[in-house]
Amino acid sequence: MSDKNESTMWGGRFTEATDTFVERFTASIQFDQRLFHHDINGSIAHAKMLNKAGVLNDEELSAIETGLEEIRQDAINGNIEWSIQLEDVHMNIEARLTDKIGITGKKLHTGRSRNDQVATDIRLYLRDAIDAIAIELRRLQSGLITQAEIYADAIMPGFTHLQTAQPVTFGHHLLAWNEMLERDYSRLMDCRKRMNQSPLGAAALAGTTYPIDRELTASLLGFDKPTENSLDSVSDRDFAIEFNAFASILLMHLSRCSEELILWTSAQFNFIDLPDRFCTGSSIMPQKKNPDVPELVRGKTGRVIGHLTSLLVLMKGQPLAYNKDNQEDKEPLFDTIDTVQDCLKAFADMVPAIQIKGDGMYEAAKRGFSTATDLADYLVRKGVAFRDAHEIVGQSVAYGIDSGKDLSEMTLKELQQFSDIITDDVFDVLTLEGSVAARNHIGGTAPQQVRAAAARARQLIAK
Ligand code: ARG
Fold it and tell me: What residues make up the domain containing 53?
């Protein structure tokens, strides 16, 4: 064997073999082999188009299709030894095709470059990932909405600054999570819409001299249309960045939900119970039941946000058109996809299993003077200026702290010490039930509104 680079597909102009370290350093097959399905789909569409254009005859097309389908099966069965010398998934598959069907295999790459090939493959791969993620996101939302309906009347303390603020219902809280996820869903759909254009035909950067039909390959691959500009088609990875931005926001949301689940399962809050199957124990402290699943979701948010930064920095100084830098898009993107899928599955499985724990939430709502605003509003309705009402309620709360009583537990006499305007009807607003029921407007926490909001949310996710 000579020193020339005969084993590669581009060895023609080279006079010495690639350094073995450089071979490994520049290869992507270690991680891009997962694109094999989409690479084969892209190649079959390209070959069909070349056949229509008169570049491949019918026998050649059929040999290519059969050969590629065999390679797909080999890959599925794990019967391919991916080769570092062949650098990436595209050249591995092409070389194997040529091994199988001979010289016809070498014709497949007519009018195409790995630059438009890889740009096509990642879009196809990401599109399938988006569709799978969309289904899982909807499953999670559906679980939240069902739980919101179940717990439309369940009262808990609502917090600001993590201090008890006003009573809300647990159903209302869960629907707040659903709203975050609904926006994430619509961000995901936006991303899909923008990325679903076919770069195939851009070739290396300038297009090709063959009579190709880009509309045909675009439609065979389920793209909305061909991309407009060949230079842009092979170079930008903004669609991957946009997906990662979606993923970062989604994980930021799931991380916040996780944080709440973790707090709520603690003995100090004692609001909810997570079934044992979502928790683990401690090897030293026998009493422990740790909320590992939400903790890990919270933790994994970091890597996804990190990948967004990686991709942005990867792209920022690149001149047009394709640069090898772009090969670095895959590992962050794949890891983001995997992480999002796992975290969504964890949440979609876990949410329907959340149970509220006895009256822990209810008792907590009673403890923090959560109906203080209701008392102030009551006084205002009776003609007291809001600032004066605020002062009166402040004194009542101070008394409550000293005497260890919630506002709803005080007698009328006790309350009248602070304002003689207060009468018996005050107890309608001082109870937790009265407080939540009074917030009866779109977006409010009244059980009636929570049920209506859940019904609307259910309709939206069915679309
Ligand atoms: N493995 C390469 C990538 O992921 C494929 C494109 C290579 N193109 C090239 N001109 N070297 O980006």
Answer: 11-110
